[in-house]
């Protein structure tokens, strides 16, 4: 049975000391990572040296218009393939709660995920939580 896969933030394009990217993986929807104006923005997630079979990705956000999630199965995060590409509805100030089921052929052997916020409904957008579901295989 799939469970929550532990992630770590390896890189982010927007950095606000009050709202770091680590907030989106801390399990608290009251904390968040915020973009800093001009789009696009990206966050690179790793699995703490492990490989994951990703089955679902859930997001809680505000003001994101176009969102892409890409996977990398290489040892270094250099070659990515889209596994989610969507345009989110403008919720007029309400939280955007989304769940993306990952095709079984796209989910195995993932070492990195890149969260790409291409555009927003406002000048700034935020991700309050991202949960990756699946199974982890520890690196040997």
UniProtKB/TrEMBL annotation:
GO BP annotation list: intraciliary transport
One GO CC term, this protein: cilium
InterPro entries per UniProt: Galactose-bd-like_sf (IPR008979), IFT25 (IPR033558)
Name of the protein described by the UniProt record: F5/8 type C domain-containing protein
Annotated source species: Eutreptiella gymnastica
């Amino acid at each position: 049975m799939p469970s929550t896969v532990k992630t770590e933030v390896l890189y982010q394009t927007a950095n606000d000391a009050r709202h770091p990217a680590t907030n989106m993986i801390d399990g608290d929807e009251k904390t968040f990572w915020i973009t800093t104006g001009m789009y696009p923005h990206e966050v690179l997630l790793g699995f703490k040296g492990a490989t994951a079979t990703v089955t679902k990705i859930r997001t809680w956000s505000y003001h994101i218009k176009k969102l892409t999630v890409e996977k990398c199965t290489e040892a270094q995060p250099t070659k990515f393939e889209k596994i989610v590409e969507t345009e989110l509805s403008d919720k007029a100030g309400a939280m955007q709660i989304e769940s993306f089921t990952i095709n079984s052929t796209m989910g195995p052997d993932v070492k990195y995920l890149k969260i790409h916020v291409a555009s927003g409904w406002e000048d700034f957008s935020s991700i309050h939580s991202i949960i990756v579901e699946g199974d982890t295989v520890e690196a040997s």
